[in-house]
Specification:
Radius of gyration of chain B: 18 Å
Strand content of chain B: 5-15%
Oligomer: heterodimer
CATH superfamily of the largest domain in chain B: Cobalamin-binding domain
Mean pLDDT of chain B: 92
Structural class of chain A: alpha/beta
Low-confidence stretches of chain B: none
Number of domains of chain B: 2
Strand order of the largest sheet of chain B: 2-1-3-4-5
Helix content of chain B: 55-70%
Order of helices and strands of chain B: HHHHEHEHEHEHEH
Largest interface: A-B, 16 and 18 residues
Shape of chain B: globular
Helix content of chain A: 40-55%
Low-confidence stretches of chain A: none
Chain lengths: 485, 216
């Protein structure tokens, strides 16, 4: 029995849906792509071309909900299914698009470069707690025009896990799909065994930008999974109430699915997001706030009531170093997301409102994820009797350590943490250098990087990828590929 | 041919499988292999491997304990053959072991006993709530090199001091050394009560005992 939390009653889900449908009619959805408006108009939406607003009737959206897949899988480079989007499957991947990297020695937030991304990818590759990679940080030495596909290139070279990524514009989206198709063996093959999901963002409140809409349409037609990242900002770019923000999220995602399914019925898409409350003291967007996690768990419940795959941004922190606040916010929010049964939880490794990545924090977050995954396994019945048979020969002695069954089952009952989690005696801890969590994580990060080996890729495919990236980079004015180390 | 058997013996200890260990011990006897060689070149290799893995955090207590139990079973099976041959397993030393008077915690103490036994010590485990007189009496009776005692409570830890004081009074501390252990035991305490060694855990206790008897 997978433990679960639900924040909404069935009746409340009904009210949220009802109000979301009302918003889609009044004020409607701003859709800044002519093609998307055309698709909507043809399906029966009332479109005001000058205002770029589409009023989408419930029946039109309901029709999209009939064709949208309830689940799909992401595959690794060898074509093995690794991530299930759908049901209550729970996976984690590192947060993405950070612009800084935390220097583990000076604790400075430094501008991130290609070797930093490679390091994050390598650490993620070594940690089984992460089922997918992400294009985790921006490589700042690379021209903006190649920024998105260059990141994917770095990930493809260093990892075989499925990838959560995203394009910065519609032309490079096509490049990125081509890059993935090299390894899948063609575009059609990529669509049948996708190795990546692409994030697509509406703009709060209730806007699908030109790029956002075109992104939805292009992904639908390519058959590559899209992941909507709706970001109501409660109290600023969304109603101050958590429920109000969930309604806005619902309206943005329902309209996104409608555009997407009109472009290609049956294409896979994820009900996802990265909402936050708005901090009224600092004007910031706290990802570690419990209310942020509450919005996520609630919209996920709405998505699940429609049978849709889900995603959220949790497991991150607003702290500037990897301290107690970082541990508390990351662990608590990862737990809420997992108990809500969210299929893909992005955010691990991130500090400072998703601006800064830290491989050391990724290592620590992996421990929290390990614990969370153990919780999801729930209480397991491992033996015929729960206890009575295990008391044979015990005779009031604490001799359970000597039982064969103890040896057989302890590692199934207990999640065995790495040395990042301190369970030593005070003296053992002192003898090991009296390190705090971050100190132990630095040590483990060093070990993981030392043990990392680049995956063996098909030389022909790797060459094709390299040639493609090199020629596109040259065209964008980048003379040589930056160093990865 | 024995190479293969020795490998299996080591593996039976690593697997913590007493039944297989006993089976292999009997096989060795039937094949006319010297039991002492079977122990040193076979079973002990497994014990060492599990001990090393445990010290690195790669093996866990149930594996360590089961390895110790399997070792015990193998040695017990080989003992009659050793007696028949008039050979004796060379023991590293004799250890009288117990949890001090007033204290009934025994998991840590028993682990130390298992590991010392598996490593070649003759262990006399007197159990829990053992008085100073009983510990010393047994040590004198069997000619022990070491008294090893455990205490989990700060309130019962003082009993460790009493045992050493009694040993001193009777002029026995020169011949019978004392190892102490237990959660509240600190290096300062060990110095204060003039104990001869202490360890954090069962694996460390083996090293301490070996150094006390000069076998390290």
């Amino acid at each position: 029995m997978q433990p679960k939390i639900e924040l909404l009653s069935q009746e409340m889900i009904g009210r949220i849906m009802d109000e979301a449908f009302q918003l889609m009619m009044e004020p409607g959805i701003k859709v800044q792509s002519a093609e998307a408006r055309r698709l909507l108009a043809e399906a029966g939406a009332q479109v005001d071309e000058s205002a770029e607003v589409a009023k989408i009737p419930e029946a039109v959206a309901r029709k999209a909900l009939e064709t949208v897949p309830h689940s799909f899988q992401l595959f690794d480079r060898f074509g093995n299914p690794k991530v299930t989007y759908g049901g209550d499957a729970v996976h984690f991947d590192p947060g993405s698009s950070g612009v800084h990297i935390l220097d583990p020695e000076t604790l400075e937030h430094k501008t991130s470069f290609t070797p930093d991304l490679a390091r994050v990818v390598k650490v993620t590759e070594m940690l089984p707690e992460y089922d997918a990679q992400s294009t985790a940080i921006v490589c700042n030495e690379v021209p903006k025009a190649v920024g998105d596909f260059f990141r994917l290139y770095v990930v493809l070279l260093h990892s075989t896990k499925p990838i959560v990524t995203g394009a910065f514009n519609i032309k490079t989206l096509d490049t990125m799909i081509e890059m993935l198709a090299i390894f899948a063996g063609g575009r059609k093959e990529l669509a049948s065994k996708p190795q990546a999901v692409f994030d697509v963002c509406p703009s709060p409140p209730l806007i699908w930008s030109g790029f956002g809409s075109e992104n939805l349409i292009a992904l639908a037609r390519a058959g590559v999974p899209a992941e909507m990242v709706s970001m109501p900002l409660a109290g600023a770019a969304a109603p101050v109430t958590l429920l109000g923000s969930v309604v806005q999220h619902t309206a943005e995602c329902l309209s996104g699915i409608t555009i997407h399914q009109l472009a290609q019925p049956g294409a896979p898409i994820v009900w996802g997001g990265a909402p936050a409350i708005f901090d009224m003291r600092r004007g910031t967007t706290p990802m570690g706030a419990i209310e942020t996690a509450m919005i996520d768990a609630s919209y996920a419940q709405v998505g699940k009531s429609l049978g849709l795959p889900t995603h959220a941004y949790l497991g991150a922190t607003d702290a500037k170093v990897v301290d107690a606040q970082a541990g508390m916010e990351s662990g608590m929010s990862a737990l809420v997301g997992a108990l809500a049964g969210i299929n893909m939880i992005s955010g691990a490794g991130m500090i400072d409102f998703l601006a800064c990545q830290s491989p050391e924090k990724l290592v620590i977050d992996a421990e929290a994820i390990g614990m969370v995954k153990r919780l999801l396994e729930g209480m397991k019945v491992q033996t015929d009797t729960l206890a009575t048979a295990l008391f044979a020969g015990i005779n009031f002695k604490g001799d359970f350590l000597k039982q064969k069954i103890t040896r057989q089952l302890f590692s199934k009952e207990q999640h065995l943490p790495s040395a990042v989690i301190d369970r030593d005696s005070i003296r053992g801890w002192q003898e090991a250098g009296s390190l705090d969590t971050f100190g132990r994580a630095k040590e483990r990060t060093r070990q993981l990087l030392a043990a990392y080996k680049r995956p063996e890729l098909d030389p022909t495919q790797e060459k094709a990828l390299h040639e493609m990236v090199t020629s596109l980079s040259r065209a964008a004015g980048m003379d040589s590929i930056p160093a990865m180390e | 041919m024995s190479e293969e058997l020795f490998k299996k013996m080591a593996q039976s200890i690593i697997d913590g499988d007493s039944d297989v260990a006993v089976e292999l011990a009997n096989e060795a006897i039937a094949a006319g292999i010297d039991p002492l060689v079977a122990i040193t070149d076979g079973f002990v290799i497994g014990v060492n491997q599990v001990g090393d893995a445990f010290a690195c955090g790669d093996a866990f207590l149930p594996e360590l304990v089961m390895a110790g139990e399997a070792m015990k079973a193998a040695v017990t099976t080989l003992e009659p053959e050793m007696a028949r041959r008039g050979s004796e397993r060379q023991i590293l030393g004799k250890v009288v072991l117990g949890t001090v008077e007033g204290d009934i915690h025994e998991i840590g103490k028993s682990l130390v006993g298992t590991m010392l036994g598996a490593s070649g010590f003759q262990v006399y485990d007197l159990g829990v709530d053992v008085s100073a007189e009983k510990l010393i009496g047994k040590a004198v009776e069997v000619g022990a090199n070491i008294i090893a005692m455990s205490a989990l409570l700060t309130t019962t830890m003082v009993k460790q001091k009493e045992v050493i004081e009694l040993l001193e009074q009777e002029g026995l501390h020169n011949t019978i050394k004392v190892m102490v252990g237990g959660a509240p035991v600190t290096r300062e305490w060990v110095g204060k009560i003039k104990a001869d060694g202490y360890s954090e855990d069962a694996i460390g206790a083996v090293a301490v005992a070996k150094s006390i008897v000069g076998a390290a």
